[in-house]
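Cross-posting from the modeling subforum.

Setting up a comparison between two proteins and wanted a second pair of eyes on the formatting. Protein 1 (sequence, then structure tokens):
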Amino acid sequence: MPELDVAVIGAGQAGLSAAYHLRRAGFEPDRHFVVFDHAPRPGGAWQFRWPSLTYGKVHGMHSLPGMELTGADDGRPSSEVIGGYFDAYEERFDLRVHRPVGVSAVRDGDGGRLLVETTEGAYATRALINATGTWDRPFWPRYPGQETFLGRQLHTANYPGPAEFAGLRVVVVGGGASGTQHLMEIAEVAAATHWVTRRPPVFREGPFGEEQGRAAVAMVEERVRRGLPPQSVVSVTGLPLNDAVRRARAEGVLDRLPMFDRITPGGVAWADGRTVEADVLLWATGFRAAVDHLAPLRLREAGGGIQVENTRAVRDARVHLVGYGPSASTIGANRAGRAAVRSITRLLDSVPT
């Protein structure tokens, strides 16, 4: 069985940042550390984004450490731009990502090591950096009558772009950035659209500066420190009010309805008797952390989340989570990768092999 110092699971922004900092700290790929990625090609979750999400529509993409993303065409799909950038990054720093390799479980092994079970065999490692993000765990809420709906139901995770909704009646569920983006472009081709959210949306005027960013991170970090599941970013930051959003609000596209009470064969209904007919229900209801493979380590707290201090799992100092909770942003993932490597280096120096 191959023995490693560090295994990295995931090659998105957080995983590549961690691999870069491992390289900088003197760890060699395929000797001291390995990066596993289940995706077929470089690009992390970005490679699965819908074609109409062009690079110019991406909010706050931050370059990976050591190599800037420059000269990108705002009109190209973000999947192509960022996928190509990640590919070049892996090659430049010789990160030797193992793909497509799935990780089914991480459990205690012999001699204080962790046993990482993958589709290419088992590995024994002294420490683990988990960078699996959320894309693989779309959240589908459940409502009475959902199984009776005669139309199509789909999630942001398999959103194909607006063309498939031409002439249809569409209900978009979810108050985040993806939901508003879907709604605004579908409204241009659909017969009718309705926007449904659990809470009234909060639109943010003005720039989102460093002070607001720190406050948002602090709120998410507090939940993670208490062992609660991380909140969505929009629940903390609000929706940016740009020209496209202002136009959509003026045209009535972003007139929000409260959450319906049940789903009917032909649409959705509220307890007060109001109904909306629909051909499609589009669930833009977010994602949950993809950490089921860590279940054998029993890291979850009673509140349902994994308690994390900085990037370290409180229940197991060998395990670090990056791109989780407060580091679930492109700049946060970069910083978390560096912090995790520093902490792991100290741990490995203090524990004899």
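Protein 2 (same layout):
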Amino acid sequence: MWPLYAAGFTTAFGAHGIAANLGGLSPDAVTSVMVLGGLLALYDGAEVLLKPLLGTLADRIGARPVLLGGLAAFAAASALYVLADSPGWLWAARLGQGAAASAFSPSAAALVARLNPAARHGRAFGSYGFYKSIGYTLGPLLGGVLMWVGGLRLLFAVLAVFGAAVALWCALAVPHVRPLPRARQTVVDVARRLAEPAFWRPTAALAGASAALSVGVGFLPVSGRAAGLGTVATGAAVSVLAACAAIVQPRAGRALDAGLLTAPAGISVGLLTTAAGVACAVLPGLTGVLLAAVLIGIGTGLITPLGFAALAASTPQARLGQTMGAAELGRELGDAGGPLLVAGAATLTTLAHGYAVLAVLLATGPVIALTTHRRPRGSHTGE
């Protein structure tokens, strides 16, 4: 499992390590805010388009070859900018990294499910999520240090070496898992399966968690600065958010495996906790920022391993790659949609109203499920 955890760390570190430091480039590489936004969107855009397709390919030819090919392509794309070192090739390298991550990220998640019995899925996905969270946490910090020491070329060089090393580790340690025989399916069959509650409910929860994480990372520093807090305090709050998510995920997975927690109940608690955290962001000063960071981290830490374990439990093993790719697509849409929703509401009113809109949206699903579950059986007949 360790090389798969390393693959999860690689995609998270590669995404945030560069994204957090692109704004510090010289004017010849990032000439405007629009250019910066395009470079940031390029990585995620490639993932949105390719993850479902490459997840399906993993089911067809096996997850291990797609994993190894994706890691090798990630190393090659990173090395491309090291060798070329020009603004034009930066776009190509970033696009290549995103396309490569689209291959090895869902493949790694599918292998986590295939290489562990169902009774250990919670723990396995909890540990996998923990190391991805560590990548998200350390990416901006280590990326900033590498940028300070040797510029963007050094950061890309480290990613190239790291990607190649993880690819070699996976080639040596990850066993070959044969693709399982699959019945033929049409586009209608795929749509029908992805429309089932067993798929879209965990996926919607994962998208909500990603939306809250993106909003927390992007907007809590804004709230902190508005309250007079310095960059150290706001940066520490974001680190607290990521640390809470990393700490909770393995514990949530172990609780699921031990029968102390069910996936639907844990996901509902996670969504309500996340909603409460987003709502706390409207409180003034350091108290609101810290409460928001802690609760968002705890809530998303609950949702992530339980959501993926629920998807693995409800999916035929021969379709795990396709399911994980589609679920990752949902996460990417939440990752982009959350900040857009809050920003749009804040533009029309205030940032506090933006937080409130997202909090209500996150809490709606669990509240509806709770009220439906508690409604008396005969209430619709007037009894």
